[in-house]
Specification:
Order of helices and strands: HEHHEHEHEEHEEEHHEHH
Number of domains: 1
CATH topology: Spore Coat Polysaccharide Biosynthesis Protein SpsA, Chain A
Distance between the termini: 11 Å
CATH class: Alpha Beta
Largest sheet: 9 strands, mixed
Helix content: 25-40%
CATH superfamily: Spore Coat Polysaccharide Biosynthesis Protein SpsA, Chain A
Radius of gyration: 18 Å
Amino acid sequence: MESKISNKPVNDAIDNFMTVTGKSTVAVIIPLYGYWSDIKDNPLVKERVLSVVMQRIYSHTHQLYLIFVANPQTVPNDLNDKYSVANVLISMAQAGNVKAIEVDRNASYSEYIETGMDCALNETNAQYVMVFNPWVMIQENGIDVLVDRANRADDAKVISGFDFRSLVEPEAFDSARINIPTEELDLSLNFLAMPRFMADLIKVDSQYLTHQYLERDLWQQVMSKGYAVITSQRVPIFPFDFPWNKYETKEDKQQDKEYFGKKWGFTVDY
C-alpha cells in the first residue's frame, strides 16, 4: 500500500479552478467500536475522546446524516457527566438527521462497518457515503474538503484522509498545510468518502476479523472495478492511539490472511 499516484502540474491547475461540490447529502458512518463501559480504564471513555473528535464533524456546505453504530447495552452512560458517550450522542441527535444502529456486543469491526453501510444505502438518500473512526481528529472543514475531492473527475473514487502524525506534533496539526499535497494509492477507514454509486458497487465483507484485511479487501474490490483508492494530504487527519492489538489477535490475523488468500489468489502480511 505504498505506491504513489501521479501528481502532474495540470492536476494542480485543475484543482485551483475546480468548482466546489454543490450542496449534497452525506451519510457519515461512525462505528463506536471500542466505546464500551465494560472495559476497565477504557482510554476512549476515560479521556473523553468522542466529545473531542465530534466537534469537527460538521459541514458548512453539505447536509449530514450521522449514523452511529453501537451496542446500546454497553455504551457508557453517566447522567452526571456531559462528556459521557450517551450524553454526547443525545446532544448530536438534537441537531437532527441522526440514526443509532444496534449491533451485538461481540460484533467485529467489519460488522460495525457493514451495518452502517447498509443503513446509509437503504435508509438515507445520501449522495456520498463516509466512514469516520471516532478516535480521529480532523481539521476544520475536513468533511467538505473530503467530499470535494471525492467529486473530482478522475479515477480516484474512494478517498481517505492522510495520517499526519509522522509530519507534525499535535499542537501544530490544525495549522499544518502542504503547498503541493501528495496522494498515495492506499485505503484507510479512519476517514474515508466515496460517491454513492461506488458504495453500491462494493460489499463490506463481514467475515474479516481485523481492520487491516478489511481495508485491503475493499481496496481490491475497488481496483478490480477499474477505479483508484487514495489517501490525500489535502485531507490531513491525526488519529489517536487505538489499542487494536487488544481486540484483534494474531490468530485473527492468520485467519484473515488465509481467507484473503483464498478470495483473491494472493496473500499479504500485516
